[in-house]
């Protein structure tokens, strides 16, 4: 049972709904909302308390794109946590290619940098007891029916992974929708490497699938955002079948991922091949690079090039 859970990016969308669903479980005693903005975090906490009737929410302020901010945030956590859900991230928006002080671009820093530091600092200080869930996406194995190509790195070497993280891998054509899948691949492989490093803990990767009611489209370029919000999500995806589900359904994957023993450490779970919703399956059954332990370790090494 997970009595205490920390969720990054918990003030809206997937993160806030995850906090709501977890609070309604009998065993949950504490939900830590790890957020970047104090005002938005307070507003989310108030809304969650009203929705659930529970007073179990705590706020920790930290910016997952900033290594020092995350380290300071961990110092504020005094008691061990059962589970951590690494949810913050997304496509970031127009500034995705911007290089941060770590050397990673903002897309990679937001999705990976702070999460790696958060987990490793918690482990170092003996504050993480059971489970880590990294939020990934079907953008990694791709969805052929939508023209979404799978991540296809040439060698998955340390240098290639590092190139994804600083953006140099993409040359002068940095397309955030393409880079997003590659960044999630790096984070996924790091998580799978951690599962081997810490066999007594559970490290699982889970995609929420294509969910309605999130802020994800807001980070896309304007034309793509318009098409997704006004045409694809309400009309096209429902007609195609297996391509969209409600926010509550996507979030239940996270709750089950940390709570249900069916979901094993060292596995990336997401929708069936070619789908974006429905039952989840082990992605390595059709995207075999996930099984490559050398690739996993290379991702880990590449990330640590940027952590001082």
How would you characterize the overall build of this protein?
It contains nine helices and eight strands. The chain is α/β, with parallel strands linked by helices and 308 residues long. The chain has a single domain, classed as 3-Layer(aba) Sandwich (Rossmann fold), CATH 3.40.50.720. Strands 3-2-1-4-5-6-7-8 form an eight-stranded mixed sheet, sandwiched between helices. The relative contact order is 0.14.
Reconstruct the topology from this structure:
Blueprint: E1 4-8, H1 13-23, E2 30-35, H2 38-52, E3 57-61, H3 67-75, E4 81-86, H4 106-124, E5 128-135, H5 158-166, H6 176-197, E6 202-206, H7 222-240, H8 247-259, E7 268-271, E8 280-282, H9 293-304
Parallel strand pairs: 1-2, 1-4, 2-3, 4-5, 5-6, 6-7
Antiparallel strand pairs: 7-8
Helix pairs in contact: 1-2, 1-8, 3-4, 4-6, 5-9, 6-9
Order of helices and strands: EHEHEHEHEHHEHHEEH
Sum up the overall morphology in one term: globular
Q: Could you say how many structural domains there are in total?
A: 1
Strand segment tally: 8
Low-confidence stretches are 222-241
Report the sheet-strand fraction: 5-15%
CATH superfamily, by name, is: NAD(P)-binding Rossmann-like Domain
CATH class: Alpha Beta
**Largest sheet data:** 8 strands, mixed
Q: Approximately how much helix is present in the residues?
A: 40-55%
Whole-number mean pLDDT:
91
The Rg value, from CA coordinates, equals 18 Å
Helix segment tally: 9
CATH architecture: 3-Layer(aba) Sandwich
Walk across the major sheet and give the strand order.
3-2-1-4-5-6-7-8
CATH topology descriptor: Rossmann fold
Distance between the termini: 35 Å
What structural class do the secondary elements suggest? alpha/beta
């Amino acid at each position: 049972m997970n009595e205490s859970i920390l969720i990054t990016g918990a003030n809206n969308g997937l993160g806030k709904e995850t906090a709501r669903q977890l609070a309604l479980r009998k065993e949950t005693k504490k939900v830590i909302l790890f957020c970047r903005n104090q005002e938005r975090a307070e507003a989310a906490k108030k809304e969650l308390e009203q929705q659930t009737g529970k007073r179990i929410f705590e706020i920790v302020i930290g910016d997952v794109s900033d290594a020092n901010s995350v380290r300071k945030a961990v110092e504020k956590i005094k008691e061990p946590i059962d589970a951590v859900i690494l949810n913050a991230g997304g496509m970031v928006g127009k500034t995705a290619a911007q290089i941060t002080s770590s050397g990673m671009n903002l897309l990679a820093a937001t999705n990976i940098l702070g999460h790696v530091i958060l987990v490793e600092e918690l482990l170092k200080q003996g504050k993480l007891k059971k489970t880590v869930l990294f939020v990934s996406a079907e953008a990694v194995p791709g969805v052929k029916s939508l023209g979404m190509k799978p991540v296809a790195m040439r060698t998955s070497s340390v240098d290639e992974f590092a190139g994804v993280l600083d953006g140099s891998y993409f040359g002068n054509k940095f397309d955030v929708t393409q880079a997003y899948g590659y960044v999630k691949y790096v984070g996924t492989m790091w998580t799978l490497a951690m599962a081997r490093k810490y066999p007594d803990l559970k490290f699982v990767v889970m995609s929420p699938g294509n969910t309605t009611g999130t802020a994800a489209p807001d980070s896309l370029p304007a034309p793509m955002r318009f098409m997704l919000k006004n045409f694809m999500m309400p009309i096209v995806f429902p007609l195609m079948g297996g391509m969209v589900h409600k926010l509550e359904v996507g979030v239940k994957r996270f709750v089950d991922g940390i709570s249900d023993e069916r979901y094993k450490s060292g596995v990336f779970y997401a929708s069936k091949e070619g789908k974006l919703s429905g039952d989840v399956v082990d992605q390595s059954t059709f995207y075999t690079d996930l099984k490559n332990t050398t690739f996993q370790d290379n991702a880990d090494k590449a990330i640590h090039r940027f952590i001082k």
